[in-house]
Design goal:
447 residues, six-stranded parallel beta sheet, Rossmann fold, Trna Endonuclease, Chain: A, domain 1, five-stranded mixed beta sheet, 11 strands, alpha/beta, single chain, 3 domains
């Protein structure tokens, strides 16, 4: 099997740990300025910063907000380290109320766990906003600025992948935040770098966050590293974006993909010929192929459960499973039956678990839901960790109930099958009732 190309210089997390504390703080100062904050100042070098390494101001419609930045160049960091810094701010504000910040940003090269983030957020409430530029976020922000990379790491990033080598307009748009998927993101990182993994499939019910996971990995992990040596990026969804329309066949995908990869006569040959030919084009370069929502082209439960109905697509995936220098990432509701024989080798078929109570709490807080951590975790359990249902719930509570988690009991319980969206339907039914009662005079547009 052909070995995948080595990852080139600059495509891993930059070596922040090799910077001195003073240099790491200077990097933070540069980054704060590049992020659009006003009048940044480095106070940590003075030795009497009272917990404030960098201060700056954020412009808003109502004026300027004071923000504090705590820059921690640690290998590991725990919740107590963060809360101890907040205590310093509390003591400072007690002495001089004019120095109270609107918010605090913790900047660190360390991996910051969900529990540590939640503990710090809870400790900051209700006095300060709280943000984190931890290892992955920090690397994303820094690599958007080649001058920072060159100044602090003496690394020249490779030129961006040309736009004509990227086709992702057919992929659905999802939110920028992702919660509780660290294990799956690591799995994707490893699959891309491994010469032994050719296809990875994420399997889960609708609304579990399959598409959001893959989009987040592409945008937050791959894009900042200039797609880590990928020579082509091609994405396709078998649902029409913004609708529930499903593809009846893969004909359009095969035709458009063949044209994009350079086939001079995409109509030539049988479906099997077209699938083989497309696989041949993809194999010529290190390609990241993303296929979203494959289930419309799979057989329903029964003798052929999960197998592909379309011959061209079936041949394409089997050929790519056998050999390719890149990676195909699939999201679907059913295990792909045609790939089962490759599962102990070049194919990973991974069941996407529902959100953990901690991840569900993070999601609800991001949607401006208020309440203590225990009650938010209990809510996640009540909704079986279903990402879509929790998103709808958080939006509903924020829109209708002032964000109060205790008012979730106002949403009636429906006794539908969980697999078909019982929890999501509960919230949608509540929205329907609210809109019917007026919803503060809101009305849908006339058709």
């Amino acid at each position: 099997m052909k070995k995948k190309p080595e990852i080139t210089k600059g495509t891993h997390i930059l070596p922040y740990g090799e910077l001195s504390p003073a240099e790491f703080e200077r990097l933070c100062l540069w980054l704060v300025e590049r992020k659009g904050y006003l009048r940044p100042e480095a106070l940590g070098v003075a030795g009497n910063e009272q917990g404030r390494d960098v201060i700056a101001y954020r412009a808003t419609a109502s004026g300027e907000q004071l923000w504090y930045f705590q820059c921690k160049r640690y290998n590991t960091i725990h919740a107590k380290t963060l809360t101890d810094e907040v205590e310093k701010y509390n003591a400072l504000v007690k002495t001089d109320p004019t120095k109270k910040p609107f918010g605090i940003v913790f900047v660190t090269n360390a991996v910051l766990s969900a529990n540590a983030r939640e503990a710090a957020r809870k400790f900051c409430e209700p006095d300060y906003e709280c943000e984190f530029w931890a290892r992955t976020e920090l690397d994303l922000y820094v690599k958007k600025h080649p001058d920072i990379v060159a100044e602090f790491f003496n690394v020249t990033l490779p030129p961006p992948l040309p736009r004509d080598k990227i086709s992702i307009a057919r992929l659905p748009i999802t939110g920028s935040d992702l919660f509780g998927r660290d294990g799956e993101l690591k799995l994707l990182d490893e699959a891309w770098e491994s010469p032994d993994t050719n296809i990875i499939t994420f399997i889960a019910s609708g609304g579990a966050g399959k598409t959001a996971l893959v989009n987040h990995w592409r945008i937050r992990h791959m894009l900042p590293d200039n797609y880590r040596g990928a020579e082509r990026i091609y994405g396709w969804s078998f649902y029409s974006q913004g609708t529930s329309e499903r593809a009846a066949s893969a004909d359009l995908f095969i035709d458009q993909a063949l044209r994009w990869f350079g086939d001079t006569d995409p109509t030539q040959g049988s479906p099997w010929d077209k699938g083989e030919r497309l696989a041949g084009f993809i194999r010529q370069t290190r390609t990241l192929l993303i296929l979203d929502g494959l289930e419309p082209l799979q057989h329903p439960p029964g003798y052929h459960e999960g197998r592909l109905k379309d011959a061209a697509l079936q041949v394409l995936l089997v050929e790519l499973a056998e050999k390719q220098p890149g990676l195909c990432v699939i999201s679907t509701r059913e295990r792909v039956g045609d790939l089962v024989e490759f599962e102990n080798g070049t194919v990973i078929q991974h069941d996407l678990e529902q959100l953990s109570p901690q991840a569900g709490t993070q999601l609800l807080r991001a949607l401006k839901v208020t309440g203590d951590a225990d009650e938010l975790e209990q809510t996640t359990k009540e909704y079986a960790g279903h990402a879509l249902a929790l998103t709808l719930l958080g939006s509903y509570l924020s829109d209708v109930c002032g964000g109060d988690i205790r008012r979730r009991d106002e949403i009636e319980n429906l006794e539908d099958d969980v697999r078909h969206g019982r929890h999501a339907e509960r919230v949608m039914r509540a929205y329907e009732k609210w809109l019917g009662e007026g919803a503060n005079t809101w009305r849908p547009p006339a058709r």
